[in-house]
Amino acid sequence: MPLDHPLDITGAPGAIDYVQVPVAPQNMPQPNVVVDHAAAAPQDNMIGDLLGFDTPSPVTAAPPPATSSTSHISWVMGANMSGDDYQSKWGAISDADAIVEMVNLQVIPSSTNAIEAALSSIGVSTMASGEMPNEFKLFLYALEEGGDGCTVLIQSNISKESEPLMILTVKVENSDGSAPQNNASQKVNSLIPLIKKALTSV
User: Residue limits of the Beta-adaptin appendage C-terminal subdomain domain (predicted)?
Assistant: First the structure.
């Protein structure tokens, strides 16, 4: 594939592939080791510069909770998405439309395994995860059930050097590929409480 392809694999000798994972929202050294989670799509095993965070971009602060009920929103269990689709969907939505949320953890995890398992139980799938010297990174997504359901894309980091806190940068895409104008926060406000509940024991 071309060298400038968003999923370009840098390559390294040995059994483990090496790839750069972007750092966000704070500037951190680039990582080397990435764990693949797209078993159904081997070509997407490693994701380099997936979200294009080489140059930090401002994102909006989390909006106040929506006043309408979001309990009716259901999420697809075991959803699948290719790395190319993830990259395309994320890049199509402006960083200005991103929503930032924070989830407290009980402890700083030793790996991302327990977090990924807990999120999988509520319909949040892992595209890829990686461990850097100072933090963990996860690329997550969830699909709303129904023909007109939206796609929620999440880029997350957990610092190893501060309080147990998971920072989520979230983008929402409508089924037609557009960014929601009015209901993005509603979708996020439906999903975040589920994430918080799933991670209470992690």
Answer: 79-176
Question: What contacts 98, CB < 8 A, 6 or more positions away?
Answer: 59, 60, 169, 170, 171
What DSSP string runs through 27-57? Answer: --PPP-EEEE--TT-GGGS--SSTT--SS--
* d(C-alpha 84, C-alpha 87), whole Å: 5
Question: Domain 58-198: which CATH class?
Answer: alpha beta
The residue assigned the tokens 């995860």 is 129
Domain ranges of the chain: 58-198
Residues 50-83 have pLDDT tens digits of 544 443 444 545 545 444 434 467 899 988 999 9
How many residues are listed for the chain in this entry? 202
User: What is the predicted pLDDT for the residue at 202?
Assistant: 79
C-alpha distance from residue 197 to each of 100, 102, 130, 201 (Å): 18, 13, 23, 8
